[in-house]
Amino acid sequence: MGCSRFEGRYISWRSIPSTHHNGQDTEVSYQFLPEHWGKGYAKEAVAAVLTYGFQKLELQRIVAETQVLNERSSRLLENLGMKVEEEVERFGARQEIYALTKKEWLVSS
Question: Domains in the chain, start-ordered, CATH in brackets?
């Protein structure tokens, strides 16, 4: 898990490894304060976490989950090469489960 600081204030957190709800996959999670949305911080942070997961932890697959209505998060994950594998109802909303394999990541890097 890591936190980002900007001008002395925490602006985000992200984590890996954590086990996804399916009990098998490693999930990347992230949250940013609204005033820091749209500035590229999330893409930079999640890309670094994916690199760490695939290179240092030698993971073969990483997943992420976001609400269907969270178009920015969906776009971020797609821009990093992740693809929707499943939709589920969880936490009171429709969720998209994205996944990326190490092989796919190596091709797109």
Answer: 2-108 (3.40.630.30)
